[in-house]
Write a structure and sequence with these properties.
Layout (H helix, E strand, L loop, with lengths): L1 H6 L2 E7 L5 H13 L1 E11 L7 E11 L3 H11 L4 E4 L6 E2 L1
Parallel strand pairs: 1-2
Antiparallel strand pairs: 1-4, 2-3, 4-5
Helix pairs in contact: 2-3
Length: about 100
C-alpha cells in the first residue's frame, strides 16, 4: 500500500445526497480529524438537481493521512464504489 499512497494526491468520496446520513458525515468528519496528513480530500455530490447529476466539492482545510485504517473505515462508511483515489500521474483508481 505504501507505493499507492505515494502516488495518490486526492481522495474523492462520492456522496449520493438522497442516501447519505448525518451519522455517516459525522463519523467521517471524526475520522478525518483523527488522521491529519497531506492527501487532499474532495467530494462528488450526486443529485439530479446538479448539472450533469453531480458537483465536485473541494475541501480547503482538511488534508488526511491515507493510511490502511483510514481507507478501510472510509470504505466501510460509504462502500467501495464511493471511494476514488486520484493522481496526476495515473488515471483515477477505484479503491
Amino acid at each position: 500500500m505504501w507505493k499507492v499512497r505515494e502516488l495518490v494526491e486526492v481522495l474523492v468520496v462520492q456522496l449520493d445526497l438522497a442516501q447519505v446520513t448525518v451519522e455517516q458525515i459525522e463519523r467521517f468528519y471524526a475520522l478525518c480529524a483523527e488522521n491529519p496528513g497531506s492527501c487532499k480530500l474532495q467530494f462528488d455530490l450526486l443529485s439530479p438537481q446538479f448539472p450533469n447529476g453531480h458537483q465536485r466539492l473541494v475541501s480547503r482545510r482538511c488534508l488526511i493521512e491515507l493510511s490502511d485504517g483510514f481507507l478501510q473505515q472510509t470504505l466501510k462508511l460509504f462502500g467501495p464504489k464511493a471511494v476514488l483515489l486520484e493522481s496526476r500521474r495515473l488515471s483515477p483508481m477505484r479503491s
